Amino acid sequence: MDTKKCYVYAPLEQESRPSKRQRTSKSDPHAGLSERLKIYSKTWAEQEKKVQSTLEEADRATQGKIVDFVAANAPSEDVPRISIPTGLIVAGPSIASHGPYFERLGRGIRDVTNSSYVVLTSGESPNLKTFLKTLINKITSRVEDDDDEEDEIGRSVNSSVRGPKLLNFDLGHVQEWTSRNPVQSIVVAIQDSEAFNTAVLIEMVDLFYSWLDRLPFVLLFGIATSAESFEDRLLGKSLRYLDGQQFDVTQSDDIIEKLFRATIAHPDTEPHIGPNLCRRILERQKDHVQNTQDFVHGLKYAYMSHFYANHATIFLKYDAKFKDFSPDAFEAIRNLPSFRRYIEEKLEAGDTQSVRQLLSSDKFLFEVIEKLIVTVQNALSSLSIAAIVLTRIRESLGITPKVRLSNVWSRAASGELLDSPLLRETMLSIKKTPSDRLARLIDSLISLATEDFGLDAEQLQRELKTLVQDNAGSGPLRSQDDIRNESVRTTVVAQKVLLSKHKAALSEQDKAYSEIVARFYQRLESYFSSALVDPKTLLLYEILVYNLKSPHTEVFQPRPRLAIERALATPHDYLGCECCGNTPDRENTLAGTQPATAIVYQLYLESGAVINATDLWFAFHAIVSKDDEEDQSQTMYVMQMSTISNDTDHTRALFQRALAELKFLGLIKPSRKKADHVAKMMWKGL
Amino acid sequence: MLPDEILEQLNSKYPCRESQIQQLAALYNQAHIPSPSLLVAHGLTATGKSSIIRSYLELSSLPYAIANSRECITGRHLLERTVASCLDALDDYYDETIDRRPYARTENLSSLIVALGRMLEGRGKFVLVLDGVDKQREAPYTLLPALARFGESIPNLSIILITTLPIPLELHRPGTPHLHFPTYNRNSLLTILGRNPPQIFLQPPNEEHFPDYTPDIAAEDDAWLWGRFTATVYDALSRHTGRDVVSFRLAALRLWRPFVEPIVQGTFGTRDYSRLMVNRRALFQVEDSVLDRIIADNSILGTNINGANNSVVPTTPSTRRRVRTIAHDLPYYTTHLLIAAYLASYNPSRTDVTYFMKHADKRKNKRRAPSATAGVTKSKHRKISRHLLTPSPFPLDRLLAIFRSLLVESVPQVADLYTQIATLTSMRLLVRTGGVGSSDVLDPGAKWRVNFGWEYARSLGRGVNLEVGEYLVGGVD
C-alpha cells in the first residue's frame, strides 16, 4: 500500500450544493464601524502607552546596571584587556519576551554609551561563518554583496587600489569600520544562548579574544535557565577568556502583576475586561506561558473584539451628540439584557411613563444613557479602587497569605468579594491592629486615594497623631479587640478544666484608640459595601465590560490535535449530515455512510500498538458493505478470493486512500517489526 | 641593534628561555646569512612560542609577517590573510607601495606561491610566521606539505610554523629543523611569577602607627611573601591541576587577597609565614581557586575561610555542593512537562503500566518496594544507577501520556502544550535526538531526550509538590 497511489473520482451529479445561507435582513452589520475603530484606536493607544511605560519601569533597574557595566568596561589606553567583559543576563524562561527586552536594552546602551550594539539570535547563526557574516553586516550596516562585484566608493583603503579584498566573514571589516566610526565598545548580545550551538559559542569566544587587542568587544548573553548551566557548556579555556557579572531580570509574573495594575485594574480603564476573561488570561500566564507579550496581545485582542463585535460600543464615544447615532444603535441598546432588566424594574416600580418614553423616544433614551453611562463608569472605577484599597490594607498589615491584586480584582469584578472570607478576615484584623500599624495603614491609604472615598482618613490621622503623642507608654496603643488585652484563665471545678477569657482593663488612651479604630472600621465597612457592587447588575454592563471568552480562547488557545481527532472520531460533529447522525442510544456508531478515513480511524482507535492491515481491511469492508445484501451472504474469504466485483474494487480504493491519509497525518507508519502490519503512532486524547 | 643586546633584552623579558632564544638568534640573525627555509616551533600552550618569536623578529630588523590561524575561519581565509600581511610588511619595511592589483585573489596554495614569489622577487630575506597552523579550521589537506616546499621555489623566503606538537610526518619532508619550547618546570614558573609580586597592602598602612614601614620595605615584604606563597600554591594546587604559567598565575592571584587578609587586618606580621599558612590552610584544601568561572566570585572563597575558622572540618567540595538553581520559576504545566520528560527518559517504557496507570491495580503496590529491598537483592554485577546513565530517547506521545497521568486534573489539549515543548527545546532542556524522522519536526516518529540531571528534576518536582523519586524505576539514593 506504500507504492500504490489511487484516486477515487466520483462527482456527484444529481444533487447540487446546498444553498448558501444569506443574510436577509437589511441592517448593515458594519454600521458605525469606522466610528468604533476610531474609539478603539484612541482607547488602545492610551493603554499601550501605559503598557510601554510599565515595561520600561519594570526593567529599568536591571537595564541601568547593564548599561553601567558596559560603560565601566570601556577599554582604556593604559590597561590592556586580559579578558572579554561579559554580562550574563538571566532573563527567564519566557523566550518570546527576550527579543523586545534586548531591543529596549540596546536603546538604553546606545543612548548612554557610545557603543555599537548588535543582537544575534541562534537562527541567524547556524555556524561560525554565518554568525560572523551576520555580525559584520549588523555592525557595519553594510549591504551584503558578492565577492565578484565591483567595490563602491570609500569601501576601504585596500579596495581602492583593488588589492586583496577581505572575505565577508573577516572581522577586519569591523576593524575598518571602527577606524572610521570610533566607538567605545562593540556590544554583542547573544539573545538565546541556550539555542546556540556550543561549538559556535566556543569558537566565537576564542576568536573575539584573539581580536580583543584591536576590537573592544563586550559580550552579553541572554540566558533562560541559569548562569551555572551556561558556564557548564563552555570549555575551561573559554571561561578563562571571559570575565563578567550576572544580571537578573525581573520575574515575569511580577511584571504581569504590574501590567495588570496598570491596565486592567486601573480605575480609568474603559472598557473594562470582565472577570472571566481576566482570569483566563492570568491562568494561562501561570500555567502555560510566562510572557508579557502574550498578555498585552490578549488585552489588545479583547479590545478589538469588543469594539468590532458590539454595535452598542459606539456610545463610548467622547462628548457624543445625539445626531451621531443611528436609530439602529438605540435599538441595540434596547436589546441589551441589562437594559431589559432596567425596564422591568421600572415597570415594577410603576414608572410606566418613563418606560414608554425610553422605549419609544430615541432622544429621551440618549439623554438617559448619557447620564447613566457616567455613573456606571464611576461605579466600575470605584470597584477597581476598592480592590486596590483592600490589597493595600493587606499589604500594610502584613496579612498572610499574600493575595495579589489580580486575584482580589477578579473576585471583586465578579461580585464575589463583598461576602468573601478574604474581606471578613481583613476587616477583623483591622480591629486588632495596634496604633503604629494603623498609622502606617492610614498614611498609605491617604497616599493612594486621589479623592477621599468617604473615609475621612485625614481627620482620623490627626486624631491618631495627637493620641499617640500623648501616649506615655513605650509600646503602641492597642484596641480592645487585640488579643494581648485578653487573658485566658483556667479554673478546675470538679476535675474539669474551665477556660474563661477575660478582658484586661483598658487604659483611657487605649479606650480612645479603640474608639478611633471602631470608627475607621465602620467607615471602611460602609465604603466597601457601597463600592463593591456586582457589576453584572449595572445598566449598560455589556458596553462597558468585555467578558466574552469564546473568541479569545479560540484565538489564543487553539486545540489543533483535538480538532483533528474529533473530526475523525465523530465526523458528524463537523459534517452535520443526517446520514451519519448520532443515534440517541450510542454516542459513536460506525456507519458505512461516514467518510472512509473516519471509519478506518475509529477502527484504528480500537486496536493495539501494531495493526494487521488485512484485519483492518476486513473490518472496513464489513462496515462499508454492510448495507449491500448481496455481499452479506458471502464470507469475507470467499469474497476476497472470488472475482472481485466492481463494488469491492471501489471499497478497496476507498480503504487505501483512507490508509494513505492516516499515514499522511502521521497516525500510522509501516512497521518493520511484523510483516503486513502498520505501527500506531498516536493515541487519542494526548 | 647588536645580536648580543637583542639576546639580553629578550632574556630579561622572557626568563628561562635562554636556549630557545639563542637558537632563534643563530638561525635568523643577519640578512646575508641564509636561514632555514622552514622551521617548526612547537610546544604546549603558554610556553612563550608566539611571543618570543614575535619579539625576536621585531628586534632583529628582518622583514617579517605573521598570520594567525586562530583568526582565520577557512583555509582560503588564511591564504588571503597571509598575502595581505606579507604585502603590508613589505610596504612597511621597504617604505614603498606595492601595486596590489595582481594579488587581489588567493584562492589556493598555487596562487599563494605565485603571489609570494612575485612579491619577494629580487628582495632580501623574508620571514613568514604561521601561528597555530595545526589548528587551522577547514585547512586544505596539502597545506602543510606545500608550505614545507615553498623554500624550494622561493629561496629568500623562510617560514616558521608554530604548532602545539611536532609535525614531522605531516610535512612529508625529512630534515626539517624543529625548535622545542618545553613546558616550564617548577623553578622556572616560580621565577617568572616572582618577577612582579602583587602588593600586600592595597592602601599603605597608617603612617602614624608605622612610621618606619617605607615603600622599600613593603616591596621587599611583598616579594618575600609572594615567593613563598607561590611555591605553596604550586605544591598544593597547580602541580595537580594546571601547570602552565597562565592557570598557575590565575590561581595564585585568586588566592592572594584572601591569603593576606589577616596581615592586612593586623592579626599577623608580614613575615609570620608559617602561622599565616596554618591559619589559611583551608584555602588550599578547596578547589574553588583553580576552577574557571565567568563570574569572579571572591565572596565564596572569603566566606569559606571564615566558616572554616570556627569549624574543625574544612569545607571541601564534597561537603559543600554547589547549589544549582533555576533563577526563574517555570509555569505550572511546563514544570510537569519537564518532569514527565525526565521520567520518560529514565524509566523503561515497559514499566509505564505499573507506574502510571490510573486505575487501581494490584501491581501498583509493588512499586514502593525497591528502597527497602534494594540493599538485599543486590546482584553480583554492580549495576550503574539509572540516573547516572545517559537519558534514553522517547517518542513525544509517551511524554504527553506521562504528563497527563502525573496531573490529577485534566488538561485541555491546547496548542500551548506544544508551544511549551518548543520553548523547552530552544532552551535545550529537551533535545530532539537523531532517529528516523529527526529532520522533520512534525514527524511523529521523532525521538526526544531530556538534557538535565536528577537533581534538577527533583527540585522541579518539589516546586510543584511532586516527589519525582516515587515515580522513578529503581528509586534513587
Automatic annotation (TrEMBL), chain A:
A GO CC term assigned to this protein in UniProt: nuclear origin of replication recognition complex
Ranges of residues in domain Origin recognition complex subunit 3 winged helix C-terminal: 561-683
Biased composition range(s): Basic and acidic residues: 25-34
Region named Disordered: 10-34
GO biological process terms held by the UniProt record: DNA replication initiation
Stored Pfam families: ORC3_N, WHD_ORC
UniProt name for this protein: Origin recognition complex subunit
Similarity comment: Belongs to the ORC3 family.
Molecular function in Gene Ontology: DNA replication origin binding
Protein location: Nucleus
Keywords: DNA replication, DNA-binding, Nucleus
Residue span(s) of domain Origin recognition complex subunit 3 N-terminal: 3-315
From TrEMBL, chain B:
GO molecular function: DNA replication origin binding
Predominant place of localization: nucleus
Keywords, sorted A to Z: ATP-binding, DNA replication, Nucleotide-binding, Nucleus
GO BP terms in the entry: DNA replication initiation
Subcellular location, record wording: Nucleus
Keyword Nucleotide-binding among record annotations: yes
Domain Orc1-like AAA ATPase: 15-160
Source organism superkingdom: Eukaryota
Origin recognition complex subunit 5 C-terminal domain mapped to chain residues: 330-472
Cellular component per GO, a single term: nuclear origin of replication recognition complex
Pfam families linked: AAA_16 (PF13191), ORC5_C (PF14630), ORC5_lid (PF21639)
InterPro entries named in the record: AAA_16, ORC5, ORC5_C, ORC5_lid, P-loop_NTPase
Record-stated family: Belongs to the ORC5 family.
Protein name: Origin recognition complex subunit orc5
The species this protein was found in: Paraphaeosphaeria minitans
